[in-house]
Amino acid sequence: MVKENVKSILSELPKGVELVAAAKTRTPQEILEAIEAGIKIIGENYVQEAESAYKLVGNKAKWHFIGHLQKNKVRKAVKIFDVIETVDSLGLAQEIDKACLRENKVMPVLIEVNSGREDQKFGVIPEDIEQFVKEMSVLKNIKMSGLMTMGPMFGDPEDARPYFVETQKVFEKIKALGIPNVEMKYLSMGMSNSYKVAIEEGANIVRIGSRIFGKRGRVYGL
Ligand SMILES: *Cc1c(COP(=O)(O)O)cnc(C)c1O
Fold first, then answer.
1. Residue minimizing CA distance to atom 6 of ligand 1
2. Of 26, 74, 117, 187, which residue has the fewest beta carbons closer than 10 angstroms?
3. What's the CATH fold of domain 2-213?
């Protein structure tokens, strides 16, 4: 199943759009199966889960962090992950910067945009992004590389479109500012039910879980 799913998604993705397999709650075996079918990037929401998967999967794929990163997990996270997609506060950015200095690496990061301005969601609201990018751009061991958004969850993906449009506009605006040490390269939007709409609105990373691995719910019920 996983194999067929990956192949069918990859065959229809436009050139230049990268696929992140969102692997929360999946076993290392399932992850390896996805990699064999052509997945190049694994997305993880939990550092601990990523650590145990990483032991078996290692560098067979790149690792993107896509969950809410707690400051006390940053040191572990920077050892495993190649990109952190969900920076949502200056304090977190500073923590990542410090940990990367210790590891002697530069971490590409995306800012999580709370495009729905939802109280219960993490992320920076669209009107605060510009200021936030400027403050982050002085940190030497992180590389500002783009934006990520979840958007509100809808049954009908068309309802998500305005949130993707708004995030894409912020992305283009920041890009046009040409801030030193800021490279607006990645726009990560869209999940299993919304990735086609997200791509139409400019996403070049899509994060897909259930359409690859099947329905979740065995462990965390997420
Ligand atoms: C789980 C998750 C996804 C994938 O969700 P699906 O609906 O299973 O495709 C994408 N992005 C984030 C941040 C997630 O936590």
1. 209
2. 117
3. TIM Barrel (3.20.20)
